């Protein structure tokens, strides 16, 4: 799936995106027979913005937390945790390009390794990291909750899904002189490529090989205005 809108030569295009995100957390409790349970209090997939953490590439967040529930919900068969338990988050599987950092911050958690949570009450925030991902694609991690003190049996395996945030950048077009027009877009569009096609068909777009100039905070490229109809778009490789 591609989040793109072509720009027809002679028209300036502008695209905005807005996202209303619910509070993103996972509540942890147990059911009436004692098995560990989770409740995802967000709408998957989680959208990860570009990493702001030094040394952590790609798209990342530390805002999604695992919280021990503070209320019993008998109707929902979901109850508070004993302080005698000692919890770990176990990584069972991960998609290529998707990682979660270990609790020491020294590297990625390997499959089968545990992330320290500890005793209840807890509020734990791993750093989830799409190291290199394609906007529109969904990446998955599979976990299980484990109690080292065996107060509770393990939870069922559960998935967390993620997708990279898509930056949208407007393509602007102005006539520079009688025979030329100028396309410009933000230099914040790192790695985005200018594509063109004579048809409004995403499968027919090809890379514009002219190297753009950098003018202020924009990339700019000048093309002849007399050529046949062309459509343009910005696209990540």
Please give a handful of descriptors for the protein shown.
237 residues; 5-stranded mixed β-sheet; elongated; disordered N terminus
Q: How are the SSEs ordered, and which strands pair?
A:
Elements: E1 7-8, E2 25-30, E3 36-40, E4 46-48, E5 59-61, E6 65-68, E7 87-94, E8 98-100, E9 114-118, E10 123-124, E11 128-130, E12 139-147, E13 158-164, E14 172-177, E15 180-186, E16 193-197, E17 206-207, E18 213-215, E19 218-224, E20 231-235
Parallel strand pairs: 2-6, 4-13
Antiparallel strand pairs: 1-20, 2-3, 5-11, 6-10, 7-9, 7-12, 8-11, 12-13, 14-15, 15-19, 16-17, 16-20, 18-19
What features would you describe in this structure?
The structure is a single chain. The chain has 237 residues and is an all-beta fold. The protein folds into two domains: 7-15 and 167-235, Immunoglobulin-like, CATH 2.60.40; 25-164, Immunoglobulin-like. Helix content is 0%, strand content 40%. It contains no helices and 20 strands. It has strands spanning 7-8, 25-30, 36-40, 46-48, 59-61, 65-68, 87-94, 98-100, 114-118, 123-124, 128-130, 139-147, 158-164, 172-177, 180-186, 193-197, 206-207, 213-215, 218-224, 231-235. The strands form five sheets. It has a five-stranded mixed β-sheet, with no helix packed on it. A four-stranded antiparallel β-sheet has the order 1-20-16-17, with no helix packed on it. It has a four-stranded mixed β-sheet with strand order 3-2-6-10, with no helix packed on it. The protein starts with 6 loop residues before the first strand and ends with a strand. Residues 1-22 have low confidence and may be disordered.
């Amino acid at each position: 799936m591609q989040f793109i809108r072509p720009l027809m030569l002679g028209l300036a295009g502008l695209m905005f995106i807005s996202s209303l995100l619910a509070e993103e957390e996972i509540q942890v409790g147990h059911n009436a027979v004692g098995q560990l349970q989770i409740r995802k209090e967000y709408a998957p997939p989680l959208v990860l913005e570009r990493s702001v953490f030094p040394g952590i590439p790609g798209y990342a967040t530390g805002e999604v937390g695992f919280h021990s529930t503070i209320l019993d919900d008998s109707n929902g068969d979901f109850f508070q945790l004993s302080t005698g338990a000692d919890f770990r988050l176990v990584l069972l599987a991960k998609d290529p390009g998707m990682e979660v950092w270990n609790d020491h911050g020294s590297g990625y958690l390997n499959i089968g390794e545990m992330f320290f949570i500890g005793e209840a009450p807890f509020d734990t925030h791993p750093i989830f990291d799409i190291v290199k991902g394609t906007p529109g694609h969904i990446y998955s991690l599979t976990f299980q909750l484990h109690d080292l003190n065996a107060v509770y049996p393990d939870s069922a395996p559960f998935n967390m899904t993620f997708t990279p945030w898509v930056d949208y950048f407007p393509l602007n077009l102005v006539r520079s002189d009688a025979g030329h027009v100028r396309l410009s877009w933000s230099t914040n569009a790192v790695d985005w490529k200018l594509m063109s096609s004579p048809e409004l068909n995403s499968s027919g777009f090809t890379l514009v090989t002219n190297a753009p100039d950098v003018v202020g905070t924009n990339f700019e490229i000048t093309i002849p205005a007399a050529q046949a109809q062309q459509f343009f778009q910005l696209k990540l490789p």
